[in-house]
Amino acid sequence: MAIIEAIKASDQKVRFKQSVATxxxxxxxxxxxxxxxxxxxxxxxxxxxxxxxxxxxxxxxNLLFETENGDGRLISQRELSxxxxxxxxxxxxxxxxxxxxxxxxEIFQQCDVPHVIxxxxxxxxxxxxxxxxxxxxxxxxFKGEAVCKAFEMAKDEVAVNFNEEExxxxxxxxxxxxxxxxxxxxxxxxxxxxxxxxxxxxxxxFKHLRAKITNxxxxxxxxxxxxxxxxxx
Length: 233
What we know:
Strand order of the largest sheet: 2-6-7-8
Order of helices and strands: HEHEEEEHEHEHHHEEH
Helix content: 25-40%
Shape: globular
Structural class: alpha/beta
Strand content: 15-25%
Low-confidence stretches: 178-184
CATH class: Alpha Beta
Number of strands: 9
């Protein structure tokens, strides 16, 4: 994992825990009051669709988590906001590695998280670009660079390896209540302490799930007739 490699290379003492992104695990992580939270998943924004006429906007922006059985589970903007407002957190940095995740950043910002990294609203990010950015950002951060400087350097690396447009899809949000300067002038640094990475994660078990589609055996004739019908039409 790119993030773990970056932390190990920094020779800093960091306590690290990872988990599958289920709703209950997310709540549990928040309750443990970490200094830094990294969320890696898919994000969706359907506010530009016609369904918005029938649905509240905050229900059309979602993160895709998992259930305990490995199924997909959408967490809406409204649900996420409710979870965070009920929690007491000391998080100093949140990185939401998901497409169209600015709405998530805004929620964390409302909860007084000083620094939040996300993607521009309505913008997708390439998986490889997200990995490249994450590795560069955490590497610079744990080697002593200020949060905002590490962010700009990670963007520069994405611009070189991919393109400027992809780099600009990453967004840094700073709590205006605590910082009056522009992001590039922020001098907040991560506490430095030499040591090794300490992994607190439990062993992640991958379940072998049964397929939810019925067996296709003996249905070849039906399928042939369907294809033939479509072609004739």
